[in-house]
Amino acid sequence: MPALDPWLWFAVSLVLAVVAALVASLVATLVVRFGLRRRRWADGLVRHLRHPFRTIVLLLAVWIAFSLSFPGTEEWRERIVQLLSILAIAAAAWMLVAVVRLGTDITLGHYRIDVPDNRVARRIRSQTLVLRRVIIAIVVVLAFGAILLTFPSVRTFGASVLASAGIASVIAGLAAQSVLANMFAGIQLVFSDALRVDDVVVAEGEWGRVGEVTLSYVVLNLWDDRRLVLPCTYFTTKPFQNWTREGSELLGSVELDVDWRVPTSRMREHLDDYLARNALWDGRASVLQVTDAVGGLVRIRILVTAKDAPTLFDLRCQVREEMVAWVRSTAPAALPVQRLLMTEHEAADAAEPRTPRQDAGLFTGSAEAEERAAQYTQAVPVTPESSENPPDIGRSAPDSPKSA
């Protein structure tokens, strides 16, 4: 049956191509493993590139077998070739993404962030991760464009799109304004060294570490295992605290309100002795000062230093607990108290005799003052005669104008 000869040949060619692809992939894996066994990135090379490499080799083998078995320009053959082209473009993009991931992993392996002085490592790590995302996004976009160009109708439409590229770019820019703003903000953050992975920051009143910086958002790992996701534009438009931009060492305070009888010199000696035995203290600073003395209490402020923010928090808690225990056990007189003065008012009043008021005011205390008060209040002076014969208010006097 002659009609079956091309398909039979294609089947044989396909089997041979698949076997050749598997053999080539196996040989390449063995060469890498044994030839680069002394390289630390050899395992990563095999792990990242094994599957995309096998896919590309297999697609090439199938394409060669199909081209040799079905030469011609039939429409269905063109459709199969177009499908294989799309798969080859996708596999090539997959391969490029794997290469980018391998290169960035090798770079990140040289800069560890689990060491005390890791400021440079955190900067390189943040920039590398953002660059990887940018490159992967570019590869995906180019691969998608190349796949679209395999369709003749899209190629024809591309000419008209290029003719109106100005209007299309304006419309696309307005539609993707927030997306582009976040993308450029993320790139600005990592390359301006304003924010890095593993930085300790305070944003929106929350304390946490930067866990991830992407092209659109930043993830903060908060101290209580919550995750705060903020857009990249937040860190370029609003103020935030970065506790590890120059270094991780920090200075913290502990405040206590005690009585005026507190022995500050002995308290200072005990603080120095306790910090010398505490492994959390880095030895940079130790200060005990009286910062306030009002309201019947004395405010003691203790300043201590530690290598990073979590260590400083634990150190402050331990110092506060130790000083409270010391005051309670060694200097109980320094415990804060409230003083009340109790007096007997009756005895004080009896001891001090009361005398008539002798001071003269504007309207009281003298005859002139009383007269001035009568002028302002229209008071009727009361005399002994008038008190015995009070006037009849409702009856008019004989010499009044009304009686006439």
Spatial sequence of strands, sheet with the most strands? 4-3-2-1-5
Give average pLDDT, whole number.
76
Work out the number of β strands: 8
Succession of helices and strands: HHHHHHHEEEEHEEHEEHHHH
Largest sheet, described in full? 5 strands, antiparallel
Number of helices: 13
Strand content: 5-15%
Secondary structure class reads: alpha+beta
Shape: elongated
> Which percent range fits the helix content?
55-70%
Give Rg in angstroms: 45 Å
Quaternary structure state of the chains depicted: single chain
Describe the structure.
The protein is elongated and about 140 Å long. It has a five-stranded antiparallel sheet. A three-stranded antiparallel sheet has the order 6-8-7, covered by helices on one side. 56% of the residues lie in helices and 12% in strands. The protein has 13 helices and eight strands. Among the domains are: 2-110, no CATH class; 250-334, 2-Layer Sandwich (Alpha-Beta Plaits), CATH 3.30.70.100. With 404 residues, the protein is an alpha+beta fold. It has helices at 5-35, 42-69, 75-109, 119-148, 152-163, 165-175, 177-191, 234-237, 264-277, 309-330, 345-351, 367-377, 384-388, and strands spanning 200-203, 206-213, 217-222, 227-231, 241-242, 250-258, 286-292, 298-306. α2 (42-69) packs antiparallel against α3, α3 runs antiparallel to α4 (119-148) and α9 packs across α10 (309-330).
